Protein: Transcriptional regulator, AraC family
Amino acid sequence: MYSRYSTRGIADQDKSRYWEAAVNDAYFDLKLTFQETRTFDATLDFWEIGRLSLSRLYSQALQYQRLGQHCTNESDSFLVNVPELSEIHFEQMGRSTWCAPGGFILEDSREPFLFQHPKANAMWVLKIPGDLLRSRLRNPRAYCATLFDARDGAGSLFVNYLKLLIEHRQDLPETTQALMGMHTVDLLAATLERNPKVLHSEDSAVRNAHLKRVETYIRTHLDNPNLKPDLIAQACHLSTRYLHMLCRETGCSVSDWVRELRLQEAHAQLRYRPASTQIGTIAYQLGFTDQSKFCNQFKARFGMTPGEARNPAR
Structure:
């Protein structure tokens, strides 16, 4: 789905109210402070890509605030902001950073923040459901309000992939777009994990290496219905007790982590695999031995049945 918002043609006295409603509709509730409302000019192009959304935003100088009253469990998402014309300033969780063109930052909707650009700016903004990013990355909050390089390496590949996705989306079926969206999240996770400053400031390199090895093993063995803590620990050369401790530090049990990764993969496959592929086949190939139980867990997790998740119109 594509939407476009623009202040052009809006009466001067209505521009600030119109733009605040547009931004809140595209992202989540924010308080906006304008330098000049009468001559304010802004446009926002918005695309939905599977469970993600990507937007291209242009506006004159502006300040956005995410207040405590805005932060609810229902608005669990992360924004990746990529400025192109001028610097942006961002503050969240006691951290503060300036991000110029050539970089990007991560924002958490569940925490208050301040975001501003003193000059006119154009930006790419990627919105990711919180559960989806957490299924790819341990503790994404650790990466918020930190400057990441978009000029070379994985960061450059991530940002260019965003632009290519929009450039070619009209030529791609929705299932392929959804799959590319999942690849975008994987690229982002790979980019964030390569930042040594974040890794060493929040967790030890050893602990993160263990978690990454465990996650890789789980992802490559989702088809095994006997994917239990003892098996995972043995395969990753850890004690079962230490594995449980690692998972507790991330806020979930080993079994919860396995189930979450299976459900996320099932959701992705329902979007991009042919409609002729039976739901039971997907469930079985991801280690679910009881289709009824799988359907119940899927609906509890995503608020829809597997069949509804397969319907692009939803």
